[in-house]
Amino acid sequence: MTGQAVCGFHPTQRVASRRQLILNHKVLLTGGAGYIGSHTAVAMLEAGLIPVLLDDFSNSDPAVLNRLKQLTGHALTCERGDVLDTQFVSDVMRRHQCSAVVHFAGLKAVGESVEQPLRYYRVNVGGLLSVLEAVQPTTCRSIVFSSSATVYGDPATVPIDETFPYAPESPYARSKLMCEDILASLAMSDPSWRVGVLRYFNPVGAHASGLIGEDPSGIPNNLMPFVSQVAVGKREKLRIFGKDYPTADGTGVRDYLHVCDLADGHVAAVKRLLSQGPGFTVNLGTGQGTSVLGVLHAFEKASGRTVAHEFVPRRPGDVAEYFANVSLAESTLGWRASRNIDDMCRDAWNWQQKNPEGYRSETASTACELHAA
Questions:
Q1: pTM of the model
Q2: Which of the residues are catalytic?
Q3: What Cα–Cα distance (Å) separates residue 114 from each residue in 169, 171, 314, 315?
Q4: Which CATH superfamily does the domain covering 25-372 fall into?
Q5: Residue 190: which pLDDT band, with cuts at 50, 70 and 90?
């Protein structure tokens, strides 16, 4: 893909050089300094939108602001604070007069949610309520919510479409479905609200420049960053849970989605709402499944390294196959993923090689406009 634009930007391109770019609307990105939020900020700038980041940096690093400035030529505004602080969010909305909100901020580890359910409900459900209460007095009535395919639980069949029954199996999944219910109730009570719900499958990969990517704290919860860390020598080996599933190679199959495709999906969602389009709930995935061994082999091909691994017993609750029907996203938003598993592994490896310790070797520059609450 050499020479192609990725996430809206060629790795060597700067928005600053495009003098004709007119930025029309400000969009508040809660959790905007995180993995998905930072990639979405890049895509929004290219689309002519002004991202305003809000983050408490509990699961991100201020150094990402440096990288975003290098990548885009813009010092993005980032308001530092907690979404649970309603007055803080209100002040941010008042100062920046945002036309739309994308709500990323929240906790996302399924296993951790089982151990800490009260924390997950407080942060995920309470965080959304706080944001909505802050936005309610303003003229902003467009919100895109970062939801999850985990709301479907263990589906009877695949691919999974938006009409499937809900069967959340963890406090994390239940917190996402509760948030969806809150948004539906709000839109029913006040039709001026335009709500977009995006149910993610498995975001992976990184920006092709290697400047921004996934930087998990501690032991990664997800497959791709764990594989990356094994390949770079940070971890000894990958444990593959189960090799006797009714799939082509016996390992579990999931729908992996390049984070830049996901970012583009958020841009499409915001544009639809800002154009006075009706609300929607759609799956964001590729519509194809890749097995654990398929990911491992694709990563070995991308990295030129062997990924040490061992098979261990299945984990309770894991299912054989889990991938999306994405036709509604295409018909509603005009969006479809364009990158395959080889692209995802190549970009994840590029990020890992260039940043073996993630963002932790840097500090945020004062060139980036970072405000404290």
A1: 0.92
A2: 172
A3: 9, 6, 18, 14
A4: NAD(P)-binding Rossmann-like Domain (3.40.50.720)
A5: very high
